[in-house]
Design a protein that fits this description.
Helices cover 52% and strands 7% of the residues. 22% of the residues are buried. A hairpin with a 3-residue loop joins strand 2 and strand 3. The chain has 139 residues and is mainly alpha-helical. Helix 1 crosses helix 3. The longest helix has 21 residues.
């Protein structure tokens, strides 16, 4: 992983951003376990920063915590995906209606991004057309 060096904007937030991109690009399938030591080694950072990043992604709903077993990529069910899609459509209309009067850091934009991420998480390239994406044991 020869990404450019991470700068302490908050290191854990920078790591979370990179991991979010990788999750949404389906580098890890839904249900895949994430190893904090491997991630820390890959980015050349300490495990504590990676663990904090994983907690942020868990809070965002992209990861699921399993006590004493680490974190896995979330496996959204069909109802969650339908809800996320409906929210994405509704919030998208709301944002468009507001035009340029809505600041980039508005709650509507934040919620829209979260809904978009959930929808993306459920659409695994190459998976069967039905929802949800099937659980995978790929690491």
């Amino acid at each position: 992983m020869s990404d450019s060096l991470l700068q302490p904007r908050s290191l854990s937030m920078a790591i979370a951003d990179r991991l979010r991109q990788r999750i949404l690009a389906h580098e890890w399938a839904p249900g895949a376990s994430l190893n904090d030591a491997d991630i820390a080694h890959g980015y050349g950072v300490n495990r504590a920063s990676v663990r904090e990043a994983l907690k942020l992604l868990c809070h965002d709903g992209l990861l699921q915590a399993h006590p004493h077993h680490g974190m896995t990529v979330a496996v959204p069910n069909a109802a969650q995906l339908r809800e996320a899609l409906a929210l994405q459509q509704w919030l998208g209309r709301f944002v468009r209606e507001q035009g340029s009067g809505l600041p980039d850091n508005s709650l509507a934009y934040a919620m829209l991004r979260m809904a978009e991420q959930r929808v993306c998480l459920g659409h695994v390239p190459g998976a069967a057309a039905g929802w949800p994406a099937q659980r995978s044991r790929v690491a």
